[in-house]
Amino acid sequence: MVKDSINSLKSALPSGTQLVAVSKFHPSALILEAYEAGQRVFAESRPQELFEKVNSGLPSDIEWHFIGHLQTNKLKMVLPFVSLVQSVDSRHLLEEINRWGRDNGKVTDVLLELHIGAEETKQGFHEEEILDVLFDADKFANVRFRGLMGMASHTDDESVIDADFERIDSFMAYIVDTFPELEAFDQLSIGMSGDWETAIRHGSTMVRIGTAIFGNRQVP
Ligand SMILES: *Cc1c(COP(=O)(O)O)cnc(C)c1O
């Protein structure tokens, strides 16, 4: 039951950790079930799917996050509807989000995705690229830097996951130390269905949980 999963996750999470329900590939009916259990923050990873769900008559006080790879030609399907883009993975994307915001009068909250896992997927910044961006933070007037997002290696080896999260946790601390002027930089989005318990030991302020709430995705 969606409701039971949400309740047990919520009672297990520390008070400083927000539950983000990852609803990608799940129908609106299940989102509504989660909503009725009190869940308000949902995340999608594909622009088209987000756009359809946002416009499908779901309650208007749902808060949407975007967590997938975002192509710059899809910004208008995403940016008007989300309170946070968690998956900014290149300077080019950041510049385009900033430009879109300038043209449309919006300041977009973003997380910078740090490449931590040993995955085939090369998605995400490296540490030094993030530092370069943050040294130029004042060039991005229509972006608000809120923190980091990361995905641990896809493995059952607890010590590898632990090391991945330790790396992003200490990099977060380094940034907060180095850029005290970034006052809103306080979010660390780590932890999914299989590794959220490890993530909260490393300071997660946001866990992104799909399968453990909604069951297996119906991937077409
Ligand atoms: C799909 C996805 C999740 C949720 O994964 P589960 O293992 O189903 O909890 C979290 N974060 C990102 C970036 C995702 O794409």
Overall description:
This protein is an alpha/beta fold and 220 residues long. The protein contains nine helices and eight strands. The chain has helices at residues 2-12, 28-36, 47-54, 75-78, 91-104, 127-135, 158-178, 196-201, 211-214, and strands at 18-22, 41-44, 63-66, 82-88, 108-114, 143-150, 187-189, 206-209. An eight-stranded parallel sheet has the order 7-6-5-4-3-2-1-8. Helix 6 (127-135) links the parallel strand 5 (108-114) and strand 6. The longest helix is centred in the C-terminal third of the chain and has 21 residues, at 158-178. The mean pLDDT is 96. Pyridoxal-5'-phosphate binds next to strand 8 and helix 9.
Quick overview:
The chain is α/β, with parallel strands linked by helices and about 220 residues long.
